[in-house]
Amino acid sequence: MTPRSVVDLHLHSSASDGVLDPVSLVAHVAGCGVRLMALTDHDTVAGLEDAAAATRALGIVFVAGVELSVDWRGRTLHVLGLAIDPRAAVLVRGLRRLQELRSLRAERIASGLASAGAPGREALTMVRTVGRLPTRMHFARALVALGAAPDVATAFDRWLGRGRPGHVATEWPSLAEATGWVAAAGGAPVIAHPMRYPLSAGARRELCAEFAASGGRAIEVITGGGGIRDRDQAVSLAVRSGLDGSVGSDFHDPAIPWNPPGRLAKLPGSVRPVWSGPPFPAFETDAEPA
Ligand code: AMP
Ligand code: MN
Ligand code: MN
Ligand code: MN
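That is the input. Now the predicted structure with manganese (II) ion docked in place:
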């Protein structure tokens, strides 16, 4: 049976690289049976106000969120800030820095693509028109539209993935710094999709231990597309490092049928749900279907 969760704390709108605008996203999420949702766009909080208003009309409980790009030991990782105050000065400053980095990076991605013979300048023009916040996903879609790749996955393989011409090193803020911004905004810092990073088991344990020591609250134990083995490993990581668990689909696009909002397994009883207390709004998880 397809697992279903009424909680989904990792979703993207067109404020970053999601396809649906915040209001359409909320309607879609509600249609999928989700009752507690977080909007977590990459490095921006621009969609939160519209999404929050839309949830009020539909009776969904809304959590203000963001997905921050961070550096840990030379790798890019993602930290979710959940139940944040998006107006907190420290966070606003941090987001401004991330947005500047992304804007400069987009120029460098375009140059890298152009020097490898891809339509980098044309892609940049498209990225600047469609996206308020430039991501590699926007470049991937532009490259597909320009005929430089048949689909987004190939665009990453050919042009934008690690070691490809459109992949540029970026000095994201450190994990500890970004964790501090989330904490300063009253939110819960959560490591997104912890099993997706190419880290050894030992490095992953060190990551979680360091994260917990610097104020991290949880790791995403249940994530869209993750298998049972990933889940089991994430559970033991959470238990071992004393971190709570979160669940999130990382939904971007309704045209991708294998990762809809809320198609998520239950958090195992050995892990405490990150949303079960402050700073999260009250929500009765027992309402979850069996
Ligand atoms: P960025 O944060 O600008 O590096 O863009 C990363 C985003 O691109 C991720 O959040 C995913 O949504 C998407 N992405 C990364 N790698 C792939 C891939 N191999 N295939 C499809 N989408 C990807
Ligand atoms: Mn994304
Ligand atoms: Mn991510
Ligand atoms: Mn995401």
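The radius of gyration is 18 Å.
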